[in-house]
């Protein structure tokens, strides 16, 4: 095998497929990158038994062939090379990589031991605008669970129906929902639960195009964009039914300036390092919210924010880590609305715009 590819194309391709490299695997080949040169194209693949990635780049192929190279080593080499032509040439169990005055000779693994790329026969497929989808995923993926025992809570539920795209995520302590209008209108409602971290990684890839095609089969989800194909497993289990958790009314509502609220929250939470509870005292008569935190070892802190309040005076305790995640999700908006029912019922944060966002958060004991 012998081919030449530009350093910039190689680096971009390695960045894409490196997301599928195995780490700490008992199978050394899973930490490698499969290279195949044929018909003016370099094909790169990775597979860690959970996800498989394939990416194609143009190359000057003098001699067709295939091999498997250590992914970590190849990525480190590519990072250090100048933006010039890079030539790969195999001889026996070695591959020589040369660029300008640099030469590397690496051991290779047998391409015969590489698993063939999964070919998914998608039962349902939809194409969505990737920029909008990336903004929406960024608002909800942090809410997914990190517990491996509840795999279905690690996912984001994606539904597309009646020209509306909706994403939902929950870890059982909080719930994030966002929706937006979209031109894609499938004949039948499209619904799939996709691993949140994987969904976020796919949309952050440097090879992402204006649109992303998502296909689903019984056991797998396949993402296709440009010359990149990304395949992952379907999550096991049923996504929770969340609609009955959303209250139809509230006793108290306060409209907060996002920037002012974020700054106050950061200052008050300095004292809440050991006990993550921050008290929210909503004063309907005074038109303000008082944020406060206390620690037996460090003392206490408080700050008052003027705001528009509807309804009755009410107090509630909330986990400041979770509130921060909400504030970060609405950082592109000017205002956020806080709706409360009682001190013992979930709070709701809402923000409307091009992307409508709702964040439900369970209360903490005061």
From TrEMBL:
Predominant location category: cytoplasm
Stretches assigned to the DNA polymerase III beta sliding clamp N-terminal domain: 1-115
Domain of life of the organism encoding this protein: Bacteria
Localization, UniProt: Cytoplasm
InterPro entries for the chain: DNA_clamp_sf, DNA_polIII_beta, DNA_polIII_beta_C, DNA_polIII_beta_cen, DNA_polIII_beta_N
Keywords recorded for this protein, A-Z: Cytoplasm, DNA replication, DNA-binding, DNA-directed DNA polymerase, Nucleotidyltransferase, Transferase
Domain (DNA polymerase III beta sliding clamp central): residue spans on this chain: 127-240
One MF term in the entry's GO annotations: DNA-directed DNA polymerase activity
The DNA polymerase III beta sliding clamp C-terminal domain, residue ranges: 243-365
CDD domains assigned: beta_clamp
Subunit record text: Forms a ring-shaped head-to-tail homodimer around DNA.
Similarity remark: Belongs to the beta sliding clamp family.
Function: Confers DNA tethering and processivity to DNA polymerases and other proteins. Acts as a clamp, forming a ring around DNA (a reaction catalyzed by the clamp-loading complex) which diffuses in an ATP-independent manner freely and bidirectionally along dsDNA. Initially characterized for its ability to contact the catalytic subunit of DNA polymerase III (Pol III), a complex, multichain enzyme responsible for most of the replicative synthesis in bacteria; Pol III exhibits 3'-5' exonuclease proofreading activity.
Protein name: Beta sliding clamp
């Amino acid at each position: 095998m012998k081919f030449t590819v530009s350093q910039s194309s190689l680096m971009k391709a390695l960045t894409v497929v490196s997301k599928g490299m195995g780490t700490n695997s008992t199978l050394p080949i899973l930490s490698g990158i499969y290279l195949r040169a044929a018909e003016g194209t370099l094909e790169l693949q990775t597979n860690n038994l959970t996800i498989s990635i394939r990416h194609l780049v143009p190359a000057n192929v003098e001699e067709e062939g295939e091999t498997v190279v250590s992914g970590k080593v190849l990525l480190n080499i590519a990072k250090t090379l100048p933006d010039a032509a890079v030539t790969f040439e195999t001889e026996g169990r070695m591959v020589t990589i040369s660029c300008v005055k640099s030469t590397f000779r690496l051991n290779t693994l047998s391409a015969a031991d590489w698993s063939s790329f999964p070919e998914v026969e998608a039962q349902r497929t939809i194409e969505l605008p990737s920029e909008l989808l990336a903004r929406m995923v960024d608002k909800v993926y942090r809410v997914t669970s990190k517990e491996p025992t509840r795999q279905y809570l690690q996912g984001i539920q994606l539904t597309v129906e009646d020209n509306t795209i909706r994403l939902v995520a929950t870890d059982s302590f909080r719930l994030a929902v966002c929706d937006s209008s979209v031109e894609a209108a499938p004949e039948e409602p499209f619904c799939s639960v996709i691993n949140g971290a994987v969904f976020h990684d796919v949309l952050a890839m440097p090879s992402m195009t204006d649109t992303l095609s998502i296909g689903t089969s019984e056991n797998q989800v396949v993402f296709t964009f440009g010359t990149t194909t990304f395949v992952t497993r379907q999550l096991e289990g049923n996504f929770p039914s969340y609609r009955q958790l959303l209250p139809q009314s509230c006793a108290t509502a306060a409209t907060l300036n996002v920037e002012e609220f974020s700054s106050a929250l950061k200052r008050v939470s300095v004292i809440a390092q050991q006990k993550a509870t921050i008290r929210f005292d909503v004063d309907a008569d005074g038109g303000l919210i008082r944020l406060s935190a206390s620690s037996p070892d460090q003392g206490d802190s408080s700050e008052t924010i003027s705001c528009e309040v509807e309804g009755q005076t009410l107090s509630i305790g909330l986990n400041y880590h979770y509130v921060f995640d909400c504030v970060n999700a609405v950082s592109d908006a000017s205002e956020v609305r806080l709706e409360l029912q009682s001190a013992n019922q979930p709070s709701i944060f809402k923000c409307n715009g091009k992307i409508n966002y709702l964040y439900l958060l369970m209360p903490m004991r005061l």
